[in-house]
TrEMBL record:
Keyword terms: Coiled coil, Lyase, Magnesium, Menaquinone biosynthesis, Metal-binding
Residues of the Mandelate racemase/muconate lactonizing enzyme C-terminal domain: 134-231
Coiled-coil ranges per UniProt: 59-86
Keyword Metal-binding set for record: yes
InterPro entries reported for this sequence: Enolase-like_C_sf, Enolase-like_N, Enolase_C-like, Mandel_Rmase/mucon_lact_enz_CS, Mandelate_racemase_C, OSB_synthase_MenC1, OSBS_N
Active-site residues annotated for this sequence: K155 (proton donor), K257 (proton acceptor)
Binding site for Mg(2+): D184, E210, D234
Protein name: o-succinylbenzoate synthase
Names of required cofactors: a divalent metal cation
Organism taxonomic ancestry: Archaea, Methanobacteriati, Methanobacteriota, Stenosarchaea group, Halobacteria
Length: 349
């Protein structure tokens, strides 16, 4: 009998409304719920593999990788994580399920499985505001602030720079000077547009612009730094890696998406690495289901003094895989202290 048994089942989660970004429109999140069972004692762990086009492997390639992982468990001869190859979403799903199983067996929260000395009650989070009209953007930012968020990240890049600057200006007027504002362009601008935006955003006290230029433009991102607004790399991290980014001095922050990096273990290693090099790690989800989102919260909790992270994305979904164990209060995620992920009831027989 195999020591472990891996099962997976597909799901599709609709969004409350389409999320408009410079990279395209997201209508739903399709992926696979993963369950790993240990044969000798019946202990279980849950994971989630939810590919995102442009960031990870395709849905079909993810399923094929999960099939390879299943076969590796059955054979007891192959390394199950090596079996998923470069399929990062599948690797996240399998590695998360294994970590949840082990942490649950040790009766410890998942974040303490990765950082045994940590004891964290809350991690700060930002609200994500889609790239909608000025009126919709202002309304969404106001609502976020009323719900206690101290940081709002606006999606930008689908319209002219002037229009995005006006959107940001209107939001700043609506939320006041104490709220942290960020922008995320998903690589939509050329250098001249990005420079114009950064200089205007500096006047509006925007703290960070994520991926203002396409992922390949390390020198351009380096040139944009030092103008009052921090420069964050998201897609650029996946394309270039930490060494190249730091050598080029191209970023003040890097965005860590566990689904795109291939697991919490890899994301934590990257976070520790960049922090030692003076670059801020920002943990975000890829608008995932509750299992992957809970994993990202535990990752943020395992890091020392994380900044506001992009973890409050569950309300973008019209449906979910199960009850969310993470409460959001006053702009912070309350970290589950139950064993493992803290996720229950996601695998109905």
């Amino acid at each position: 009998m195999s020591r472990y048994d891996l099962e997976y089942r597909p799901f599709s989660l609709s969004l409350v409304e389409p999320l408009e970004t410079a990279s395209g429109t997201i209508d739903s999140r399709d992926g696979f719920l993963v369950r790993v069972t240990r044969a000798d004692d019946g202990a279980v762990g849950y994971g989630e593999a939810t590919p995102l086009p442009g960031w990870t492997e395709s849905l079909a390639d993810c399923e094929a990788a999960l099939e390879r992982a299943q076969a590796a468990f059955d054979s007891e001869e192959d390394d199950v994580l090596e079996a998923v190859d470069e399929a990062v979403a599948a690797r996240y799903g399998v590695s998360l399920a294994l970590a949840d199983l082990e942490a649950s067996s040790e009766s410890t929260p998942l974040y303490r499985y990765y950082s045994p000395d940590a004891l964290v009650a809350r991690v700060p989070v930002n609200a994500t505001v889609g790239d909608g009209s000025t009126e919709d953007t202002v309304a969404a930012a106001r609502d976020a602030v009323e719900r206690g968020f101290g940081c709002c990240k606006l999606k930008v890049g689908r319209r002219s720079v002037d229009a995005d600057v006006e959107r940001m200006r209107r939001v700043r007027e609506a939320v006041g000077p104490e709220i942290e504002l960020r922008a995320d362009a998903n690589g939509a601008w050329n250098y001249e547009e990005a420079l114009e935006a950064v200089e205007a955003f500096d006047d509006l006290e925007v703290s960070l612009v994520e991926q203002p230029l396409p992922a390949g433009a390390l020198e351009g991102h380096a040139d944009l730094r030092g103008r009052g607004v921090g420069i964050g790399l998201d897609e650029g991290l996946l394309e270039h890696g930490v060494d190249a980014i730091c050598e080029a001095q191209a970023a003040d922050a890097v965005v860590l998406k566990p689904m795109a990096l291939g697991g919490l273990d890899i994301a934590q290693q990257v976070a520790t690495w960049v922090d030692q090099l003076g670059v801020t790690p920002l943990v975000t989800t890829t608008i995932d289901g509750v299992v992957a989102r809970a994993g990202a919260v535990h990752l943020a909790a395992s890091l020392p003094d994380p900044p506001a992270c992009g973890l409050a994305t569950g309300d973008l979904l019209a449906e979910d895989l199960g009850r969310d164990p993470v409460l959001f209060e006053n702009g912070a995620a309350v970290v589950p202290q139950a064993k493992g992920l803290g996720v229950e009831g996601v695998w109905a027989e």
